[in-house]
Design brief:
- With about 240 residues, the protein is of the alpha+beta class.
- It has helices spanning about 65-70, 130-155, 185-200, 205-215, 225-235, 235-240; strands spanning about 15-20, 25-30, 35-40, 45, 60, 75-85, 90-105, 110-120.
- The protein has a 3-stranded antiparallel β-sheet with strand order 1-2-3, covered by helices on one side. Strands 6-7-8 form a 3-stranded antiparallel β-sheet. A two-stranded antiparallel sheet has the order 4-5.
- Helix 1 (about 65-70) packs across helix 2 (about 130-155).
- The longest helix is centred in the middle third of the chain and has 24 residues, at about 130-155.
- It is flat and about 60 Å long.
Length: about 240
């Protein structure tokens, strides 16, 4: 029997992240691999306050985008609960989860990178649920946070994206109502659009001109996939920056 130890060497490489012209999306690729598209509003997006201000300077990476990053490197996700507090009597559940991104070679799994995420049932996002429904939501949230953290570290992407804070910001609720990228935005999102425009010093006519410049005759026709790009287009009007 051959007892020689064979090590697996993973050649880590930064993820190439490039903006796709006229789309607001990003193209990601690892050297020698197939490129994938991160879609604005689906895989990443700017989280905004109720007054339209962006909460972070760089877009937030969502779970769907983090999964694409892992796939770009040919890695699978594995989760392990590291610690937990489960108190049904008080309705309090807390979880810390480790996400391992692993490479499978000849049936063997090799951990390439790991990261941690935590969540609990006293966060605003999980409030108002039954104790066990809240526990399930908290566990999923901890898993998502761990995955996004691992993806950002793996791809050396902290200069392009920030940690997923969507679940922590109730102000962003209007933005995240629609999940179908081709569907029109909701009435609440239309109102949110004009609130943002006013906050950035745009008159209603100027906001309509902005819409027409992006191919829309009215705010009610905006597609979910274009909503964040339109909100982002207001920023130069206030700050004098380029797109």
């Amino acid at each position: 029997m051959n007892n020689d130890l064979v090590l697996y060497e993973f050649q880590a490489a930064p993820l190439a992240v490039q903006k796709k012209p006229r789309s607001g999306d990003y193209e990601i690729s690892v050297f020698g691999g197939t490129a994938a598209t991160l879609r604005r509003g689906i895989d990443f997006g700017m989280i905004r306050k109720k007054n339209g201000d962006a909460i972070t300077k760089t877009p937030t990476l969502f779970k769907a985008g983090a999964e694409k990053v892992a796939v770009a490197y040919g890695l699978c996700q594995r989760y392990q609960i590291e610690s937990k507090i489960e108190d049904p009597a008080e309705g309090f559940f807390f979880y810390t989860v480790r996400c391992d991104l692993v490479k499978i070679v000849n049936g063997m799994e090799y951990v390439i990178t790991s990261s941690y995420g935590s969540a609990n049932t006293r966060e605003g996002r999980t409030g108002g649920q039954s104790a066990y429904d809240g526990a399930n939501s908290a566990l999923k949230m901890a898993q998502k946070r761990a995955l996004v953290s691992a993806a950002l570290s793996l791809g050396c992407m902290s200069d392009s994206f920030t940690q997923d804070i969507e679940s922590d910001q109730e102000d962003g609720e209007a933005y995240f109502t629609g999940k179908n990228p081709e569907a029109p935005i909701t009435a609440a999102q239309v109102k949110f659009f004009y609130t943002c425009a006013s906050r950035h010093g745009l008159t209603k006519q100027a906001a309509k001109n902005l819409l027409r410049a992006h191919g829309y005759e009215s705010a009610s026709k905006i597609k979910v996939k274009d909503f964040d790009a339109l909100l982002n287009a207001m920023e130069p009007a206030e700050e004098g920056e380029g797109a």
